[in-house]
Write a structure and sequence with these properties.
The complex is a heterodimer of chains A (216) and B (220).
Chain A: H1 6-43, H2 47-61, H3 65-78, H4 85-111, H5 114-122, H6 127-157, H7 169-180, H8 183-215
Helix pairs in contact in A: 1-4, 1-6, 1-7, 1-8, 2-4, 3-4, 4-6, 5-6, 6-8, 7-8
Chain B: H1 11-45, H2 48-62, H3 66-76, H4 86-111, H5 115-123, H6 128-158, H7 170-181, H8 184-213, H9 216-219
The chains are: A mainly alpha (216), B mainly alpha (220).
Chain lengths: 216, 220
């Protein structure tokens, strides 16, 4: 039987952290891309499109992330699409992230007074020009802080990928627990690593929030 | 290709799972908000040591995944001599989790109460407790009520994870059914929509309660 020293535990956990970080980044990039598309679609003010985006948001905010992962992983392969745990995790986290980001960004765009849209209209700016020169520069400033804040939720969400068998921090934690029978130490370390990943982002988000509140 | 009729014979499995989820949600909502309220009050008006403790607690919980908290409580605490059943462990984990988030939300509400209002209450001869309940908490809760309810719903959805320590909740039911009849997609799809229905129902109920709780607004 192999003995695990503290060094072994920590080095294994740190190795697994790479996958947590990679998965978080992939999910965040995927999520922001989809959310950008959906936000753009929502801005077209087409009633049907808006209804669809609303439904999408309701659907993915109203169901557990774990269910979405199960559906992507077990469900899709049941329907004949082969998908790896890595693919299913990215797919479900992308859907989950984008649903929340669309709502966050909607709030940011809605905080801008309607008069700005109307004023740009009067000045003869086209829809795209208004968006590019008037709305987006302001909305982005408001949106950065909550978006960074939400990235913490994405990192925490990746922990669920352990349940569908993707080997990341939480999964290695449970595996080490099974091997060492030291759950207190192992899970405390796992929690500590997540904290070290997430806390700076939380602080940065808070800092940004303060900074932009002062400048406005 | 999809055979939802295969699920019909497991209706009672889904139903009992749903009931466990509802039961845990209601219990943790009440306990979590109570915990959050007392922590927020401590954070705002308490002793400096109390304030520090609350800050550490809130930041620790908000920056770690729920599943790790759950595993720590369920697997980790027994090695300190504290044995918990899966149901107890998940109830504690959910309460602690909601408590941390609601502390932050409620604190934002407390911050929004102008200082003059508290001073006015003092001048009128109200005791600290009267001021706290009538002058501070009621308007503060009214302001943050929507944020608080959506956090409760988020915690309800997050509770899907407790199936991992074999609490027989809705997700556990889905896993059980799909392991019996191999209809994974149908089983998870139905469960996802049950959660969606539960989320919508909860939001409706919270809205109704909110209307009752803050009815004094209408009366004026």
């Amino acid at each position: 039987m192999i003995q695990f020293s503290n060094y072994d535990i920590i080095s294994n956990l740190l190795y697994a952290t790479q996958w947590t970080i990679l998965l978080s980044i992939a999910a965040f990039i995927g999520g922001t891309s989809v959310a950008l598309l959906l936000t753009a679609a929502r801005l077209t003010r087409n009633n049907v499109v808006q209804k669809c985006v609303h439904f999408y948001v309701e659907l993915f905010q109203g169901t557990p992330l774990l269910m979405q992962m199960f559906l992507c992983f077990f469900g899709l392969s049941m329907l004949g699409y082969e998908i790896s745990a890595w693919g299913a995790a990215i797919l479900s986290l992308t859907l989950f992230t984008s649903a929340f980001l669309v709502e966050i960004w909607r709030g940011c765009i809605d905080t801008l007074p309607k008069g700005q849209w109307e004023a740009s209209r009067c000045l003869g700016l086209s829809f795209l020009q208004t968006l590019r020169h008037i709305i987006l520069p302001q909305a982005i400033r408001v949106a950065v802080a909550p978006t960074v804040g939400f990235s913490v939720q994405v990192i925490k969400g990746t922990a669920l990928a352990s349940i569908i068998g993707f080997v990341e921090l939480t999964k290695v934690g449970t595996m080490l627990n099974n091997a060492t029978f030291e759950p207190f130490k192992v899970f405390a370390l796992v929690a500590l690593i997540y904290f070290v990943l997430c806390y700076p982002l939380s602080l940065y988000s808070k800092y940004l929030e303060k900074k932009f509140h002062v400048s406005r | 290709m999809l055979h939802f009729s295969d699920l019909l014979q497991y209706t009672d499995v889904f139903f009992s799972g749903l009931m466990t989820t509802v039961e845990l949600t209601l219990l943790t909502t009440i306990l979590g908000i109570a915990l959050g309220t007392s922590c927020a009050a401590t954070r705002q008006y308490g002793h400096p040591i109390g304030q520090r403790t609350v800050t550490v607690y809130v930041e620790l919980i908000r920056n770690t995944p729920f599943i790790v908290q759950l595993f720590f409580i369920f697997f980790g605490l027994p090695s300190l001599g504290l044995k918990l059943s899966p149901w107890q462990a998940s109830m504690i984990a959910l309460t602690i989790n909601l408590g941390a988030y609601s502390t932050e939300i409620i604190r934002a509400g407390l911050n929004s109460i102008p200082k003059g209002q508290i001073e006015a209450a003092k001048v009128l001869g109200m005791t600290f407790r009267q001021t706290l309940t009538r002058i501070i908490f009621t308007p503060a809760f009214e302001k943050i009520y929507p944020a608080l309810t959506s956090q409760c719903i988020i915690v309800m959805l997050g509770s899907a994870v407790i199936s991992q320590i074999s609490v027989e909740d809705l997700t556990y039911a889905a896993n059980l059914v799909q392991s019996r009849n191999f209809r994974a997609f149908e089983s998870y799809l139905v469960t996802a929509f049950l959660y969606l229905g539960l989320a919508i129902a909860l939001r409706f109920i919270f809205n109704q309660i909110g209307k009752r709780l803050f009815a004094y607004r209408e009366a004026r």
